[in-house]
Amino acid sequence: MAKILDGRKISKEIRADIIERVDRMKEEKGIVPGLAVVIVGDDEASHVYVSMKAKACKSVGFHSEEHKLPESTTQEELLNLIDHLNNDDKINGILVQLPLPKHMDENLVNSHISPQKDVDGFHAVNMGNLTLGEESYVPCTPKGIIELIKRTGTDMAGKNAVVVGRSNIVGKPAAILLLKESCTTTICHSKTKNMELFLKEADIVVAAAGVPNLIKGHMIKEGAIVIDAGTRKLDGKLVGDVEFDSAKEVASWITPVPGGVGPMTITMLLENTLEATEKLWNSRP
Ligand SMILES: NC(=O)C1=CN([C@@H]2O[C@H](COP(=O)(O)OP(=O)(O)OC[C@H]3O[C@@H](n4cnc5c(N)ncnc54)[C@H](OP(=O)(O)O)[C@@H]3O)[C@@H](O)[C@H]2O)C=CC1
Ligand SMILES: Nc1nc(=O)c2c([nH]1)NC[C@@H]1CN(c3ccc(C(=O)N[C@@H](CCC(=O)O)C(=O)O)cc3)C=[N+]21
Fold it and tell me: Which PROSITE patterns match (predicted)?
């Protein structure tokens, strides 16, 4: 029976440390970290995530701003707002909630954010540096996934890791980070033939497909670590990509949905914003 990797509990511990660092920063330097979240359009789920981020910021003592723009906003108007935030000293981190409306180019918009304020790590320079193994902001969900795996105490070097999903925000950067930890890393996606063959060999499974119950217990190797980033509403309930009940019988560790990867994503966003603030102030005379 698998042990549960409790993302809420681990987040709480990390956030306690963040609160201390923020308090010290305020006391010693009079600085308050600031995050701006930009959302375009009225997708209900996206608005829920954005208010969760704002609430998390307040809970650790950050300044936070929500910029809610209508669906009809032009890309130029959005880029102008980003310019303004890039030059705003109160703001240390900028996040543009994805997905953006179809008339916008997500990569272009993300790369308009100052790389120093790109706390999502989606700017081409940060993605490039991540791939090169240089210092960069690490995308929040993959960073949280690695933190969760580390908490199991497992040595990742030489382990077989399978990532299901190859998106720029979860699957691809998660695979790059697992490779950095010296896992033998495979990425599966919708065109993969016979995914079960890969899953059966995996010591670490990272699921990020957004397909409820895609991965079932009988597909998983005995003793595997199973990290489920998927979040979909199914019959009014939030479910992951992994069929939890059958997988927990086979895995050694497993994340629940909700309460696994989700809270860690927001905690890593706080961590990246604090890091951006510290770097900025350390670079000043
Ligand atoms: N917990 C958190 O903090 C976060 C959770 N999420 C959740 O993670 C999931 C993935 O998000 P995101 O990466 O943005 O989604 P995308 O839709 O951008 O990517 C999904 C990926 O999964 C692959 N895929 C789809 N169906 C299958 C299948 N049947 N078998 C194998 N691979 C498949 C796709 O392949 P292909 O490329 O070939 O189309 C694609 O690469 C969603 O449920 C989302 O809600 C996302 C961000 C943060
Ligand atoms: N620029 C950008 N950056 C993102 O990081 C980003 C994004 N766009 N677009 C959408 C996805 C999704 N995402 C989640 C964050 C937290 C939870 C989370 O905390 N979930 C809770 C449950 C929340 C609930 O009850 O609905 C949990 O899993 O326990 C989930 C998903 C960040 N994303």
Answer: THF_DHG_CYH_1, THF_DHG_CYH_2
